[in-house]
Amino acid sequence: MMRPRLLSVGDRVRFAGTEHTVIALSGPRIRLLDVAGSAQVVLLPHLLGGEGFEVLSTVAVRPMVPAADVLEGLPDKVVAQAQWWQWHLVEVLTGRALDDPGGPVRAEYDPATRSLRQRELAKLAELREHGQPVSRSRLQRLRARFEAEGVAGLVDRRSQMPGRATGRADPRVVAALEEVVSAQANRSTVSGEVLRYRLERMLEAEHGAGVVPLPSRATFYRLLAVVSQGRHTLKSARTRRSLTQRPDRAFGQLTVARPGEVMEIDSTPLDVLVVHDNGTVDTCELTGLVDLATRTLAAAVLRPTTKAADAALLLARAMTPEPMRPGWSDALGMSRSVLPYDALLDVDERMAQAAAVPVITPETIVFDHGRAFLSQTFRQACTSLGISWQPAHPDTPTDKPHIERTLGSVGSMFVQFLPGHTGRSTEHRGKAPEKEAVWSIHQLQALLEEWIVAKWQTRPHDGLRDAWAPGRPLSPNEKYAELVAAAGHVPVTLSPQEVVPAGIRRIAATQEPDPQRLRVQGQPPCL
Predict the structure, then answer these.
(1) Residue 443: in which H helix or E strand, if any?
(2) What would the pLDDT profile of 491-500 be if each residue is shown by its tens digit?
(3) What is the mean pLDDT of the chain?
(4) Rounded distance, CA 151 to CA 463, Å?
(5) How close are the terminal C-alpha atoms of the chain, in Å?
(6) b vs e for 312-329, b when ≥16 Cβ sit within 10 Å of the residue's Cβ?
(7) Residue 6 banded pLDDT, cuts 50, 70, 90
(8) Among positive and negative, which fits the CA dihedral 240, 244, 248, 254?
(9) H or E element at residue 482
């Protein structure tokens, strides 16, 4: 920030018929020193409006001098040193003591009779007599910084440098340890002794044997804790790999204004054992499609292994009203929900027997590099339905965080209540979860669809807020009702000729859950 070009310390002006030198500025007050060594304080408007006022010479424009409060928070020793130099430099520049700006001028520092060089030499002699010799170059350097920056220019720069977390450790050791920790990202977890051995080998290979001493065992572990902080070097390999895939930039936020503008699709194994069609008990995969604007889980399908046709199926399911199933409560119908049923029914007759799940037509779909999503079948399905597709960056789950979090929520809010739950890893697995598996994959599909309507779509979501009442989170259905009022709904009816070539198949529940088996397992028909 630069001072407006009016007056600066050191300017020579003519005021009241006498030549003066500006020696200090404080707001609207200007301290002037005449040729006789007499000082006076004049208000700036009075000075500029004075008869015969004239600027005789000026000095270079300098930055505004910061206030003395810049010393707050610094070590006491650094503050005392800066104030000590301020005292002496003010005396060199004005001839007066810092605490007595209106007092007498010392003859050896009088700006009216002594040049700047003479005043500097006098100060050097005075400091030398008091046992504190200083070179003239240092005095000049500090004077220039004081004139340009004020007291802040007198602060020892070393006190403002951030300290290194590794302390005084050899930079070559720190650099080599950083390489060892980085190389461990995709390797199996080992003990710290193995990393110390690798560090020793690396130092010998780069600098020669014995050139760089290896730190002691205690020092090594202190350095390792600093270098590997937050990287799980000695902990979970899975977490460590996930952290390395995190982008080294600030996370952004994608703003969407209407349902279907951007949707994300992904697949994940479910931590539950089910009975497959061939009678075997094994896990299954969940493929889901979530809408960013409303967090609606527009469609979800369970399969032993996700194929391209299964992924394409979700496109049709999102664009088709979810029908009410036999045995479902009437409260799950769209006519009983917060969705604008009457307005939607006027433009889409299919809503008459629909469940309370929004019908969303995707505009853009984001997916990872899974084989099912990169297949020609899925891409042709998107093209035939007029949907833009956008692959995420490889190994970057943060490109589609909403579907990642949604599928994780299905695992924690739905799957954990099911018999046959296996836990997220072997250490969380029970003794014999395969003996608890009672549901077929089709029964579980029907139960998942009912859970989405009854629980997910009506549960308040922290990421959904009303601009007029930001303190209250909205449910996906409430957010859809808010946005569809402005964006509108255009029904899209798919003919068999459009559905079959795209590889889309409607999956119906072939077998209803057996209430007797549910009662034996102690689970309600709807979680």
Answers:
(1) helix 441-454
(2) 888 776 565 5
(3) 84
(4) 48
(5) 64
(6) bbbbbbbbbbbebeeebe
(7) low
(8) negative
(9) helix 476-487
Q: Which three-class secondary structure state does DSSP give residue 516?
A: helix
pLDDT tens figures, 340-383: 999 999 998 999 999 999 999 999 999 999 999 999 989 988 98
Residue 256 has which token pair? 């969407």
Geometric angle at alpha carbon 222, from 219 and 225, rounded to 5°: 150
* Sequence-ordered strand ranges (E) for 98-237: none
Nearest alpha carbon to residue 270 among 385, 392, 49, 423: 423
CA distance 119 to 102: 19
Cross-strand bridge partners of residue 29: 26, 43
Half-sphere exposure of 114 (CA within 13 A, CB side): 20
How many residues make up the chain in this entry?
Answer: 527
Buried b (16+ CB within 10 A) or exposed e, 129-155: eeeeeeeeeebeebbebbbebbbbbbb
Is the alpha carbon torsion for 392, 393, 396, 399 positive or negative? Answer: negative
Give the residue-averaged pLDDT of 17-25: 85
Report d(CA 449, CA 460) in Å as an integer. Answer: 18
The sign of the CA dihedral 257, 261, 262, 264 is positive
Degrees to nearest 5, angle at CA 476 with 471 and 481: 90
Burial class (CB in 10 A: 0-12, 13-18, 19+), 54: exposed
Give 15's strand partners.
Answer: 18
Residue 345 identity (one-letter amino acid): L
Query: What residue has token string 């077998």?
Result: 511
Asked if residue 289 lies in contact with residue 314, where contact means CB atoms within 8 angstroms, the answer is yes
Residue 287 is inside which H or E element, if any?
strand 285-291
* Both tokens assigned to 127: 């400091």
**pLDDT-derived band of residue 3, with 50, 70 and 90 as boundaries?**
very low
Residue-wise DSSP of 370-408: -HHHHSHHHHHHHHHTT-EEEEPPTT-GGGSHHHHHHHH
Burial class of 337 by CB neighbour count within 10 A (0 to 12, 13 to 18, 19+): buried
